[in-house]
Every structure is written in C-alpha cells, then in structure tokens.
Amino acid sequence: MADHIRIRGARTHNLAGLDLDIPRDQLVVIVGVSGSGKSSLVFDTIAAEAGYQLNETYPPFVRNRLPHWSRPDVDLIEGLSPVIVIDQKRIGGNARSTVGTITDTWAYLRLIWSRLSEPHVGESNRFSFNDAHGMCPTCSGLGEVVQVALDRLLDLDRSLVEGAIRLPGYGLQPVLVPAARRRCRIRC
C-alpha cells in the first residue's frame, strides 16, 4: 500500500490543476480561508474518487442501490482506500462538545478505559467530563478554569467612596430599593 495519496491535476470546482501528496496513516487536517478549495479537495475530489472506486468493486445489482459517486475532474489519484465521509455541517453543541463527543468516539474510549482500568471501574461514566463522577473538580469538565482577577476589579487599599471598584462606568450613585420595600439608600 502506498504511503501517500497522490493527486495530480485536480480541477474540481475552484481547484486549478492542484498537485498534492497527502500522507496516509496519519491525522491530516486541511485548512484554508473560505473559498480556498478545502471542500472541493476533500469531499468532491478525494472522497468522490474513493467512493467511485469502491462502488466499482460491487456487481451492477448492488451498485445500483448504493449512493452514486461521479468521478472528479482530476488527472491522477493514487493510494486511496475506502473512505467514510462525515458530512460537513454545523453542529449544535455546547461548551462541552468536542470532536470526540460529536462523533461518539469519546464514548468508545470511555468504555475501553473503564474496562481496562486498574483498579477496574466498570462504569464508563467515571471517565466522562459530562458526569459529576467523572468530571474534573477544578474545571467542572470544561477543560479550563475561569478566575476573577480581583486586583483588576477592586483596589483593596481604597474605600468605596475613594473608588475601590475599578469597573468601567461604575460610579457612586444612590441605588433605590423597589417601592414595595422600605426606601433606603445604599451608603458607603
């Protein structure tokens, strides 16, 4: 098996005769500005050719029932193997979402770790940053700790009247308690 995917003369969509060697058996990330041809390269060239080649291995009866892959506009692609295409779409996640959680890879890793751990834990939740038993007590499973820089908010050497609160736009103005309660002013 080749150690690279070799692409010569790729002209799909906005690719203009692209020549490229992509290493195999490694995590490869294709990056670039909007419109630079990332999707054209990954989905419309590499995945399309790999899907086409895979479909050609099946008899016509099976091939007619599979997704249709058309060949990309390219002079040469070598070193491909069957591919799994994960569609390009926005994902609805939250602060705890990662590539591992969205693809469910994280769930399988947790299962492996829980069954092979020493001492044996058995419950994969013990390795989940979304579960109270498994999340880091310092960052609550978010991977970072947010701390207030008190010295930027308060000058502990000053009183409130002298301007101890350093927040922009903060000034000493009387604050009234709602009418349903006793009227009083907060004094410093």
Task: Give a verbal description of the structure.
Helices cover 22% and strands 9% of the residues. The protein has 188 residues and is an alpha+beta fold. The protein has three domains: 4-78, no CATH class; 91-147, no CATH class; 148-188, no CATH class.
Question: Which keywords apply here?
Answer:
188 residues, alpha+beta, three-stranded antiparallel sheet, disordered C terminus
Q: Which structural class matches the secondary elements?
A: alpha+beta
> What is the residue-mean pLDDT, rounded to a whole number?
80
Query: Between the first and last Cα atoms, what is the distance in angstroms?
Result: 77 Å
Q: Biggest sheet: strands side by side, in what order?
A: 2-1-3
Helix-strand layout with pairing:
Blueprint: E1 4-10, E2 18-23, H1 38-55, H2 60-63, E3 76-78, H3 99-102, H4 105-116, H5 150-153
Antiparallel strand pairs: 1-2, 1-3
Short description:
This protein has helices at about 40-55, 60-65, 100, 105-115, 150-155; strands spanning about 5-10, 20-25, 75-80. It has about 190 residues and is of the alpha+beta class.
